[in-house]
Specification:
The chain is of the alpha/beta class and about 400 residues long. Helix content is about 40%, strand content about 15%. The longest helix has 19 residues. The protein folds into 2 domains: about 140 residues, Aspartate Aminotransferase, domain 1, CATH 3.90.1150; about 240 residues, 3-Layer(aba) Sandwich (Aspartate Aminotransferase, domain 2), CATH 3.40.640. A 7-stranded mixed beta sheet has the order 2-8-7-6-5-3-4, with helices on both faces. It has a 3-stranded antiparallel beta sheet with strand order 9-14-13. A two-stranded parallel ribbon has the order 1-12. Helix 5 packs parallel to helix 6, helix 5 crosses helix 9 and helix 11 runs parallel beside helix 13. The protein has 13 helices and 14 strands. Bound molecules: 4'-deoxy-4'-aminopyridoxal-5'-phosphate and glutamic acid. 4'-deoxy-4'-aminopyridoxal-5'-phosphate binds next to helix 5. Glutamic acid binds next to helix 2.
Amino acid sequence: MKQLSNRIQALSESATIAMSRRSRELKEQGIDVISLSLGEPDFETPDFIREAAKEAIDVGYSHYPPIPGYADLRASIAKKLKRDNNLDYKASEIVVSTGAKQSIANVVLCLVNPGDEVLLPAPYWVSYYELVKLAGGVPVVIPTSIENDFKVSLEELRAHHSDKTKLLIFSSPCNPSGSVFEKEDLAEIAKYLEENSQVMALSDEIYELINFDGINHSLASFNTIKEQVITVNGFSKGFAMTGWRCGYIAAPQWVADACTKMQGQFTSATSGITQRAAKAAVEADPSTVSFMVEAFRERREKVGAWLKEIPGFKTNQPKGAFYFFPDVSALFGKKIGERVISNDEDLCFYLLEEAKVATVPGGAFGDPNCIRLSYASSIADLEKALTRIKNAIEKLEDA
Ligand code: PMP
Ligand code: GLU
């Protein structure tokens, strides 16, 4: 009998990837779609990183690397964590992978048993939910709201805690809300972890460098709970290296060892050439990529102003990453002809068909009142896209 496993049948396709695939298909049919769906910097990888990769090819980095990554790359990552985050990790506590996504998968599969509960403050990044399900875990979604800048509080964490809670996963800067957890916000999470020493936390800091107001605070910098924290980071966003596939964790030794064992069966290490490129990136002063952050800042200002002009869109001011996550629930129930916009998905499909702009429904991130727009596109495309969205929304009528 040809039958896929229950596991894969229960897994949903990544909504971010599904929407970008759909817009690519429409583009291939000659339709002028602007995609604000995928979170991917539109810059090329900086030259000094590419040069390091070329050199790696020439000197023969063509063999299987050690599973957790080359020792000198892990040592450089440990130095970076001290330099930028004031975190003390030994190189042995770092595991390099084929992207932050694989790092998260490693951690979830290594920590979560069937039936274990995993706290996901919403909005969360799409893959957290599906990876927890894949491990047989139970995602426990904690709703937050635009009024408190989508940040989870100590009270909310306590209210969703049970004796089955195993792990908490969150990102800061946050995909999709763009919120940045300040030291006092992290202190609430740290307090919750102090109260529950059996709970682990995965702090996803992949957008660390795309932070408009200052330095990134790491949850692991709270010494009392450092042994409960796994820090995830990588190169895709800050260094525009999405296609190179490199990420890492810094974690207590027992978690790092488990992830190395998992990776040894799944993928082995990421490409040696990518690792040499990553080493150049991680050793560079972060100011070498600040030109990208400045470009994102300018786009944030412009897109924020354009969004304010759109009726029914309620927006917070994102402090990091490159997304807006407007609350569009005021539009639910409106219609055009016979077509009723009942929810986030209806709105995204309407925008795709009418405005030819691809966005992602907020439900995929656990908040169906919102939709996500990525502003990692040129200002010209953003202006065109936001004008088209405004025109499409202005056509909607009360039911
Ligand atoms: N975490 C978050 C919050 C992300 O947005 C992404 C986007 N790709 C990832 C992890 C995965 O990054 P990578 O490309 O390094 O796998
Ligand atoms: N993280 C990006 C996003 O959220 C890329 C897509 C993905 O890796 O799923 O759009």
